[in-house]
Amino acid sequence: MNNIVLIGPMGSGKSTVGAVLARRLGRPHVDTDQFFVARHGPIREYFAVHGEEAFRAAEEQLVAELLDSPRPSVVSLGGGSVTSAATRELLKTQFVVMLDVTEAQAKARIGDAATRPVLTAGTSAPPIERWKNIYAEREPLYRECADLIVSAAEATIEDRARHIIEAMRRER
C-alpha cells in the first residue's frame, strides 16, 4: 500500500494524528513542516525573507520527494500543500485522509498563530478570521483530494486514528 497522507486546515491535528496513526501501523511518520524546517530553517523566517510563493514552491518540491519514498509512511502535509496542482496530482496515487475541524476547535488550537505566518502576514485581522477565509478557499481542494474525510465530531486523536485504520481495512 502507498503512503497514508493527512491533509486539512491548520489546527486539524494532522501532525498529532499522523504520529499516533504511524505508531499504530508500524510505519514512519513524516511531517512536511518538520522536514521543511530541517532543510530551510523556521517557516516564519523563510516566509518573511522569501514570501509565500517561494515557500509554496519549496514545499511542493519537498512533498514530491517525501511521497516518492520507497517505504510506505504516514505523511502529514502542511495546510496549504493542496493549493499546488502538482501536489494534488501526486495525491491521486496515495490514500488521502482529510482531517476536518470546527472553527471553535481551530481557534483553540491555533492560539495567537505566532508560528503560522499565513495567518498573520500582511493583516491585522484576528488569526481565526484569516483561518476562516483560508479554510473557505481550500476546503474544496481538500475534499477533491480526499479518499476519506474524518469529521470534527471525532475529536479525540485515538478516535481519528481508529476511524482511519478501519476505513483502510474496508478498502482492501
Automatic annotation (TrEMBL):
<feature type="binding site">
    <location>
        <position position="33"/>
    </location>
    <ligand>
        <name>substrate</name>
    </ligand>
</feature>
<dbReference type="InterPro" id="IPR000623">
    <property type="entry name" value="Shikimate_kinase/TSH1"/>
</dbReference>
<comment type="similarity">
    <text>Belongs to the shikimate kinase family.</text>
</comment>
<keyword id="KW-0808">Transferase</keyword>
<comment type="subunit">
    <text>Monomer.</text>
</comment>
<protein>
    <recommendedName>
        <fullName>Shikimate kinase</fullName>
        <ecNumber>2.7.1.71</ecNumber>
    </recommendedName>
</protein>
<dbReference type="InterPro" id="IPR031322">
    <property type="entry name" value="Shikimate/glucono_kinase"/>
</dbReference>
<dbReference type="GO" id="GO:0005829">
    <property type="term" value="C:cytosol"/>
</dbReference>
<feature type="binding site">
    <location>
        <position position="79"/>
    </location>
    <ligand>
        <name>substrate</name>
    </ligand>
</feature>
<dbReference type="GO" id="GO:0005524">
    <property type="term" value="F:ATP binding"/>
</dbReference>
<dbReference type="GO" id="GO:0009073">
    <property type="term" value="P:aromatic amino acid family biosynthetic process"/>
</dbReference>
<feature type="binding site">
    <location>
        <position position="15"/>
    </location>
    <ligand>
        <name>Mg(2+)</name>
    </ligand>
</feature>
<keyword id="KW-0067">ATP-binding</keyword>
<keyword id="KW-0460">Magnesium</keyword>
<dbReference type="InterPro" id="IPR023000">
    <property type="entry name" value="Shikimate_kinase_CS"/>
</dbReference>
<keyword id="KW-0418">Kinase</keyword>
<keyword id="KW-0028">Amino-acid biosynthesis</keyword>
<dbReference type="GO" id="GO:0000287">
    <property type="term" value="F:magnesium ion binding"/>
</dbReference>
<feature type="binding site">
    <location>
        <position position="138"/>
    </location>
    <ligand>
        <name>substrate</name>
    </ligand>
</feature>
<dbReference type="InterPro" id="IPR027417">
    <property type="entry name" value="P-loop_NTPase"/>
</dbReference>
<dbReference type="Pfam" id="PF01202">
    <property type="entry name" value="SKI"/>
</dbReference>
<keyword id="KW-0479">Metal-binding</keyword>
<dbReference type="GO" id="GO:0004765">
    <property type="term" value="F:shikimate kinase activity"/>
</dbReference>
<comment type="function">
    <text>Catalyzes the specific phosphorylation of the 3-hydroxyl group of shikimic acid using ATP as a cosubstrate.</text>
</comment>
<keyword id="KW-0963">Cytoplasm</keyword>
<comment type="pathway">
    <text>Metabolic intermediate biosynthesis; chorismate biosynthesis; chorismate from D-erythrose 4-phosphate and phosphoenolpyruvate: step 5/7.</text>
</comment>
<dbReference type="GO" id="GO:0009423">
    <property type="term" value="P:chorismate biosynthetic process"/>
</dbReference>
<keyword id="KW-0057">Aromatic amino acid biosynthesis</keyword>
<feature type="binding site">
    <location>
        <begin position="11"/>
        <end position="16"/>
    </location>
    <ligand>
        <name>ATP</name>
    </ligand>
</feature>
<dbReference type="GO" id="GO:0008652">
    <property type="term" value="P:amino acid biosynthetic process"/>
</dbReference>
<feature type="binding site">
    <location>
        <position position="116"/>
    </location>
    <ligand>
        <name>ATP</name>
    </ligand>
</feature>
<keyword id="KW-0547">Nucleotide-binding</keyword>
<feature type="binding site">
    <location>
        <position position="56"/>
    </location>
    <ligand>
        <name>substrate</name>
    </ligand>
</feature>
